[in-house]
Amino acid sequence: TAILQLREIGKIYGNVTALREIDLTVQQGEVTCVLGDNGAGKSTLIKIVSGLHDYDAGQMYVNGELRHFASPRDALDSGIATVYQDLALAPLMSVWRNFFLGNEIRKGPLRLLDSARMGAVAQEELAKMGIDIPDIDRPVASLSGGQRQCVAIARAIYFGAKVIILDEPTAALGVKQSGVVLKYIVKARDAGLGVVFITHNPHHAYLVGNHFVVLKLGRVVLDEERENLTLEQ
Ligand code: ADP
Ligand code: ADP
Asked: Where are the alpha helices (DSSP H) in 50-174?
C-alpha cells in the first residue's frame, strides 16, 4: 500500500521552477529509486518530504491524508525520516549513544534505561538487520563508512520511521561498503519499510530498486516498475 504520495507537486524559488508536476508514490516494502543529474530537483524533493520546505503546488498524502509539513518534526511524527549524507552522527561518541542521539524524547520509557541496557538495545537492533558491532562502546568514527550509514538508518527505523529517505547513501563509498549499505536497504525493504533511494548510480539503483523515477530539470522523465526494465522482451 502507498504510504507517501506526491501528486503534481511544484516548487518555485523566485523565478526558478525547481519541481514541476512531480508524481511519486512510495509503497510499503518497496525501494523507490530517484535518479537525476545535478539541478534535477532531488534536494528540493528531499526538503519537501522531510519538512524543510513546503510545496507551492499539488498535494502530498501520507497514508492517504493530505499533509503540509511545517517542520522536520512534523515529517518524523508522520513516520518519514531522512538520512542525510552527513548522517548526523557524532563521530567521537559511542555507537550506542549515537543510536539514541536526538531520540531520547521520542520513546519515553527508554530514558529510564541505564547505559548498559541502552547499549544492548542498540546492539540487538543492529544485529537484527545483519549489522554486527561487537563493541557497541567504540566511537562511531571507528566504524566503516557502510556501517555508519546502517547505524543512521537503523536509528531512524527503531524510532518509528515507516518511510526512509536516503540521500545518496553510497556516493562516498567503494564497492565493498556500498554492498554493506545495499544489503541493508534490502533488509529494510523486506521488513516492510518504504525506502526512497536517491542516487546518481543507476547500477546501485538497479540492484535494489522496485520502482525507478528519473528527474530532469525538475520534471519526471521516466517512471517505471522494475518488471518493465528487464532485458527480456
Ligand atoms: P539536485 O539536488 O537534483 O541537484 P536541486 O533541488 O538542488 O537539485 O535544484 C533544483 C533547481 O532549483 C536548480 O535549478 C537549483 O539551482 C534550484 N534551486 C535549489 N535551491 C534553490 C534556492 N534555495 N534558491 C533558488 N534556486 C534554488
Ligand atoms: P533554507 O530554506 O534552509 O534557507 P535554501 O533553500 O535557501 O534553504 O537553500 C538550501 C540550499 O540550496 C543551500 O545549501 C543553498 O546554498 C542552496 N541554494 C541556494 N540558492 C541556490 C540556487 N540558486 N541554486 C542552487 N542551490 C542554491
From this structure: 72-77, 95-100, 115-128, 145-158
Grid cell, residue 62, equals 501520507
Strands 57-62 and 80-83: what pairing? unpaired
Place of cell 519541481: 19
Q: Which atom of ligand 1 is nearest to the CA of 47?
A: 6
pLDDT score, position 112: 58
Q: Which ligand 1 atom lies nearest to the CA of residue 40?
A: 3
Strands, E, within 170-210: which ranges? 194-199
Q: pLDDT by residue (tens digit) across 140-183? A: 999 999 999 999 999 999 888 999 999 999 999 999 999 999 99
- Predicted pLDDT at 89: 86
How many CA atoms does the CB half-sphere of 98 hold within 13 Å? Answer: 27
What ipTM was reported for this prediction?
A: 0.69
Q: Which of 9, 11, 12, 13 to mutate to test the pocket of ligand 1 (most atoms within 8 A of CB)?
A: 13
Whole-angstrom CA distances from 222 to 34, 40, 61, 197 are: 10, 13, 21, 15
What is the DSSP-derived secondary structure letter of residue 129? T
In the 8-state DSSP scheme, what is residue 109? G
Among protein residues, the one with the nearest Cα to ligand 1's atom 7 is 43
